[in-house]
Write a sequence for this structure.
């Protein structure tokens, strides 16, 4: 029964490396890049636990395990007391994963991790397009004087040319800010920013058509901060902002990436202590399953 | 005050049998038909507790206690260690209730219970139409090799001709599935299935017009699995599926049954341990109150 | 960091009186006017705690601290064992605050408090217009035989001519009621009542245009009962009613008051024990921040 | 099964009055006498809910239902908005109960209630002895200037000669205080005060021998404030004090009253919102069951 | 770090069978034998999660992994909808485990499971001695008319001669009962019953000396129902009884089995939904680790 | 009322510096030195919140505010993304506090903080004696390869001669360990280690007599890790170990320091997300109040 058994991601087999896989789930138990409430270090474990409910096909009929070789490869070993070292360790671990040709889908962990993951991805795929769902832009130059933290990964990524800002979209931005416009810098780089007010009361399918247009053939990475979703649905996160996306809109965004050249993705900022019954983690697990279903090569029923 | 007094359903009088009543509330403390998380055995108790907040008229002006004789008749006595025997006990208990001419509104308990309730209802009313709200179709042939469980009641009901599949609608279906289309069987029987994607971002009033068309004069049973609603609003359930209906849509479905020949209903799958402050149970109590308000004979203000 | 420091409202300076301020935050730790679940006496403390996350500009670019002098002036000292005395103490305390010319934004506390606050406001501003968000009309004549309680403040306010009923709107009304229409009395006084069914599935911006029309230049008070919002988003309250407004709609209402002559506001009925991780209080803190941002004199970016 | 059925106290029959009973359970949903955290108005309901687990004999072999006629008579109807009136209503309701000769065992509710209960008891039994378990002495002269509140009942009771201070013992006193000795007044009246430091690391059976000596034949009332027990075991209360009695010691105190002329008792200050899974209420229900078992006339096995 | 990695028991390697092991951890996700609150089906998963904190030596210096080959072999596959079939499946699975010569330490699951486990053990080791910690005797003849449930395993075990009643001790018995002495039957069989009142306020080391005397060389099984411990320390269980053993006493009991011929053990009745932060499961994991440390062959430091 | 007002420590006045104070409360919102579960960065805030319940005298009659000038000086500003820098910032901040002659009582924060605090204290007082309550020795040489983390502060402190190991005692040590004896190093330095097994079932007053002997006149620092207390009483911590001290024993330890030359203390490792109703923080606040009461100069009643 689903209540039994070792809690690997989606109850997939566990293997130590990515060797032989088309896609893998990998966790990063990181929370020392967090600015407000911590706890995301336990995100991977809780996402795995809740993922045990999830079955083998998505509700559009995609059966990813029939098209792709997928496994859980466990967690990256990180230094919990030195964020800069942790970031290096993540980059190295992902470089190894990518070398096998496997596409990583990451269970976070705080959003700092997207920076070293994108560094590794650049080594494999070059500069990528980015679909970024978040309440926050995460393009601060510094936090408390530090260049590396969960509010800076995409500033670093753009500066280091890991991401093409013209092929980057941020969806769900909102919340009280530090300045009248916290998103000015990335807009100046050419990033498309979609504030949550543009999303309310409607489907995001039309927006995603535009995104598919924008992306074309470029390798695309999906970075989904669970705080993009409203805290009513996703309370288990460290920097909740009211008035967010609905889970349905979150699904629409990921499903809307179908057809793109998706080369990886992450689901970050799930903080289990703030959601002890796992509603947020369950949502995270579902979003990761949908990411798996939009990887190139997954077959859908022809109707 | 509302915080005081014995917690019967809506603080109605308690009586041992359905004798003399037009409608009754009855609980079934069942959870051994559950596949994922358990706990619904305590659903009836928590729904009663939260129901104490609810007043005597609904917000459309219906005053059911002025039109109907209603009471709480307590819980069905069931065998907690043998599901097959429990199912028999439920069928017998409901046959007795129905004999009095009273319409039962059931506080669940897991969804297995709809099967014996519908068996009893057939004895009284013959084959019925069914409005079924759920994230899941509940038409599996077997679960872990068993014919009786909370994922099979409507397979059994259709097989035993308790429900007319042409007068049956399922609303809110979603979630990762076991096969590319878990709802194929019932669609082949003629059941109308409405996936949640068809419901998002809009009112279900138009859908319910169609339902009233479809049903005509046939006796109609309402089976409402609280997991049809999104876990953001109804976390207290055992098989939560992200991206569900809103409470408003749930209300629209039940209110849309007004005018039909409703002969009973159930509200199932409330699992209190996963919602210790009772938000889910309160929603369940409200949905049951709305079911009471659409029973034939309840008067509304003429405006 | 945001996790550090004494938890004043928005981490503003604390001062003992309102002297020299344009606007102040003030708490009223009251819950003895509550009819169902209590706990709102701890609302001010939890709202302050969660408010520490909130930054200095709203997402429309308003920078209130650059336009206005604002501080936290702590809580009103009340009698916890005698509601009638507590009400007098609140009136007196607010009269002193208003004498300084400062606009009070109140952290509740149960809704009883709006009555003495409006009494004090009348002394300063005369009769006011009222934007009232709530699941309940709060215009009962009595509760359990008492004239003062959290279900009666606006009956008293209209009777005592504190509010102009022709310039009063109630948004979000719903819930099972005591009579077929619990809002008849205020409708007869000329109050505009907007039931939640009129709000579902859409933006409230058009409604707020009408409100701005209706109000004209009259001094306007905003009274926001957090139970106006759906319990899925705001479980931490004492009289939750299913099927409420979304947080987004709540924001639209307050932002829609921009341009009016807002002279004060309150956010009431946050009950911390029913939301231990503070999601409801965080929403309350955001709504109070938005109230601050619509006070006359707050500058917005001209674009 | 125990998870089913209407939640009356110990699943006893409910009856409207005390007529014909030897003992009754009665609830008082009061919390407006509370000084710190509220919530005890829901104590009676949660104690009833948790009491459903309790069986018919205690573990010493007492079978109270075979010796006594016992029922649940529901809750006293109180004014929730005026503590002084509520106190009068309680006194009247208990006077009626006592007139029937029935012994009341009360489910609180805040400790204010002991004052009117003892007033009513004086009318029936005259001055009584008192076994009072509490972290606090509850003999303040005033709280925030008021004579009636949950910190004053035993000051009033001694002043009005409801209790013989020479036959009164307080067990479990502790906690930071307002003065170097908050218990001076009652010590001067002759009350025996037992600070918790005298209780640690040992059985209270010897102490209870002394209590039985002290009491002799006088009618004895037991007032048990759940905050006498350590918050590790009983977190669900409004004024928790660290370093309290163990549940075992609480049991020893009540069991030690066997043989006394016990004429009633109460279990107060259970605040459900602070213990959503009901551990505290379950302890309260057990303590009330033990009180029932020490009522005169309950037979024990002779061994 | 400990917050990372797949949550196997104590982060041991996972293997599919017991082949080659001296001892194994195995889970049984069972809760359909439960009489009061359910949820133990998730016990194995939560115990594994919390076990990740536990290091490799116990605090007496035992280093079990240096003496024994140990692994996690996952969960027994059971029928969730038919308790009688589940019991058969458990017996078969354990028979296979025992065939390898491996000693099973079981993560429960409700206490019903001890019955089929002991059946399997009899096949391997013959009749065993039993150290049984529990608030309840679990020797009912029937529950709701059924022979198999979590209150009957030791009745069945004695009847079927799986356990030698003269080499059986039950520690921690308490709680309201169904009859003046619920433990009469087993006392008549020769079982030693130790009520919790005999344990309070002192060390159980002397008792365990007697137990070692009593047992001699017979193979001994340890069955530890977490409800033996007080609910203040172990709230996460389905049938909590106040006034229980302390965790320290629980440790003393298991450590006191050192030197006996322990051939297996179980830790049952951990119900995660009632303890969302895992305190109970962590205690369970520690008790299982101590069981591992008293298996014959584990070396201790010689001092 | 206690439920009102800004939550400073014990509702003391807040001031920016320690100037003019005999003792101060100061918070350190640190959790990036944590090895298992995080969350202690919010410890200071929750301890302040719960401290509002605490009155002005302890239960032995000490009235610290009459003898000493005390205030809350807020939190140390730390770098949340670089532990090594944070440690430097703490040392500097405490050096300034100590310069004023004020004695700091610290609200933690993870245990890493004791290292820089002791560094600063050495500058003022020279080498100190140490009363250290903890489940863990915290004398690891490294954690994950790092010298600074919450498991190493006392290794560093002894190495840097901040503490005299001959005047150091560790009480409450327990828990599964990494080696057969994790405390060997400090025992070799001359530290007295008291394992929890030596503490069970009895008062620690005799032990504290020995401690007072041992310390003599040396300046003494008290470092109290809340995980020294059993998780049944103090669940809100990151590395809970079963079988700990009772709160009473914790009180006995601190009260037993009366008469020593106490020059400061800390209460660390309170992790609010794991104890949302604040029982652990309330215990922490009480322990800090008792530390205040044993500072030299606090007068006690002479009896
Ligand atoms: Mn982010
Ligand atoms: Mn974010
Ligand atoms: Mn269903
Ligand atoms: Mn369902
Ligand atoms: Mn209101
Ligand atoms: Mn309201
Ligand atoms: Mn008390
Ligand atoms: Mn009291
Ligand atoms: Mn058992
Ligand atoms: Mn048991
Ligand atoms: Mn430590
Ligand atoms: Mn520690």
């Amino acid at each position: 029964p689903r209540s039994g058994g070792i809690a690997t991601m989606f109850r997939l087999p566990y293997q130590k490396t990515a060797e032989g896989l088309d896609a893998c789930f990998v966790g990063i138990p990181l929370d020392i890049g967090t600015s407000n409430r911590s706890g995301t270090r336990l995100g991977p474990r809780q996402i795995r636990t809740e993922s045990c409910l999830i079955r083998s096909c998505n509700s559009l009929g995609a059966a990813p395990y029939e098209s792709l070789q997928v496994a859980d490869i466990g967690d990256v070993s990180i230094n919990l007391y030195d964020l800069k070292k942790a970031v290096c360790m993540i980059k190295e671990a992902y470089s190894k994963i990518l070398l096998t040709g496997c596409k990583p889908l990451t269970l976070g962990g705080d959003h700092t991790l997207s920076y070293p993951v994108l560094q590794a991805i650049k080594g494999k795929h070059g500069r990528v397009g980015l679909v970024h769902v978040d309440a926050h832009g995460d393009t601060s130059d510094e936090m408390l004087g530090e260049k590396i933290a969960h509010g800076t990964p995409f500033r670093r990524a753009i500066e280091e040319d890991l991401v093409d800002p013209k092929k980057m979209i941020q969806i769900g931005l909102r919340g009280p800010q530090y300045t009248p416009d916290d998103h000015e810098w990335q807009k100046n780089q050419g990033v498309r920013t979609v504030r949550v007010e543009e999303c309310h009361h409607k489907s995001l399918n039309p927006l995603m058509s535009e995104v598919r247009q924008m992306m074309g053939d470029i390798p695309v990475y999906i970075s989904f901060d669970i705080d993009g979703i409203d805290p009513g649905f996703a309370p288990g996160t460290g920097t909740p902002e009211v008035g967010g996306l609905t889970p349905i809109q979150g699904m629409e965004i990921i499903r809307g990436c179908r057809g793109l050249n998706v080369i990886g993705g992450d689901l970050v900022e799930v903080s289990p202590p703030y959601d002890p019954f796992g509603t947020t983690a369950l949502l995270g697990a579902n979003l990761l399953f949908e990411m798996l279903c939009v990887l190139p090569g997954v077959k859908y029923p022809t109707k």
Remarks:
- Residues 9-293 of chain E form a domain with the Arginase; Chain A fold (CATH 3.40.800.10).
- The first strand of chain E starts at residue 23 and ends at 28.
- The CA atoms of residues 118 and 246 of chain E lie 27 Å apart.
- The beta strands of chain E are 23-28, 70-75, 103-108, 128-133, 163-173, 192-195, 219-225, 261-268.
